[in-house]
Amino acid sequence: MTNLGEKLTDEEVDEMIREADVDGDGQINYEEFVKMMMSK
């Protein structure tokens, strides 16, 4: 995100991960990533 010019706090990054991590395993898999990107 920094490379895209976004300056995010750790809390903002954590929130983004929580929103995208549908199954709650602490990781964003391919399906979760695609779903997140398609909803934006």
TrEMBL record:
Keywords: Calcium, Metal-binding, Repeat
Superkingdom, natural source: Eukaryota
Transmembrane segments: none
Lineage summary: Eukaryota, Discoba, Euglenozoa, Kinetoplastea, Metakinetoplastina
GO MF annotation: an example: calcium ion binding
UniProt source species: Bodo saltans (Flagellated protozoan)
InterPro entries the UniProt entry points to: Centrin_CML-like, EF-hand-dom_pair, EF_Hand_1_Ca_BS, EF_hand_dom
Domain EF-hand, first and last residues per copy: 8-40
Name by which UniProt lists this protein: Calmodulin, putative
Pfam families for this protein: EF-hand_7
Keyword Nucleus: no
